[in-house]
Amino acid sequence: MGSLISELLGTPNDDMDHILGIDDRRKGECEQHGNFIDVHHSGKGRVSEGWKGCPECAEEILQARMREEERQRQMEMMRQRARRLVMQSGIPKRFSEKGFDNYQPANGKAVSILKKLREYSDVISGGKHDGRSLILLGNVGNGKTHLGCALLQNVILRTCKPGAYWTFAELIRDVKASWRKDAKFSEQDVYDRFAAPELVVLDEVGMQNFTDFEQTVAYEAINARYLLEKPTVAITNLPATDLSRCLGERVVDRLRESGGKAYDFDWKSYRTGDAQ
């Protein structure tokens, strides 16, 4: 049985044919849709010259193209959203162009850490991470912040979910700012904001005195994300032996739970060209 489309196109109407540029008709048979009336366009209208074949096949091709165009439009919207989220993440301008591909490993251990961070990005982006966190620690100038920002940007672009870069000093300042009489946010608001993104990179941990107050802030912030099973990447120049003393055992335990790893950048700084 021919389709309604075929029947409509197959009904001669001089005025309509003139508008559509149809100058001939013939019987056709489609393996999928059966008999139909094929039409020939003169090329003088909006349609190119030639026989057009099965109208239902043509309609299916049109619908498929429209679906693909819509998919591409949605993908572009997601890409634009992801780029906005990267810009809003707080990644410092100096590190905005730092990625996995332009990190230059100084030695075999650096190559191994880069590989593990790529794998970690796969895990976080896949969503099955159980809040697994990371600690990047060791010598100044070995690319810890570079890799931390590369990881953050990579996850944002792949998941199209918010991420954030903080320094520990910024976290302390925001908590203290919440105490001002004219403050329009509370200390809990700071912890809620810290907990909200899918991934947080907390940099420059250990540059403070780590008073009881600073340890409390570290615990409240990390614990807020821990309870939501959201991963945190802590970056510090402290050696592993000093980390618990400065951050507190509870904070380190939170970061190491669910398979959290600590990667030690213990070679000489590559900023001075003497990495080994």
Structure, explained:
- This protein is of the alpha/beta class.
- Helix content is 48%, strand content 17%.
- The protein is built from 10 helices and 8 strands.
- The strands form 2 sheets. The chain has a 5-stranded parallel beta sheet, with helices on both faces. The protein has a 3-stranded antiparallel beta sheet with strand order 1-2-3.
- Helix 4 packs parallel to helix 5 (144-159).
- The longest helix has 33 residues, at 55-87.
- The radius of gyration is 30 Å and the shape is elongated.
Short overview:
With 276 residues, this protein is of the alpha/beta class. Helix content is 48%, strand content 17%. It is elongated, with a radius of gyration of 30 Å.
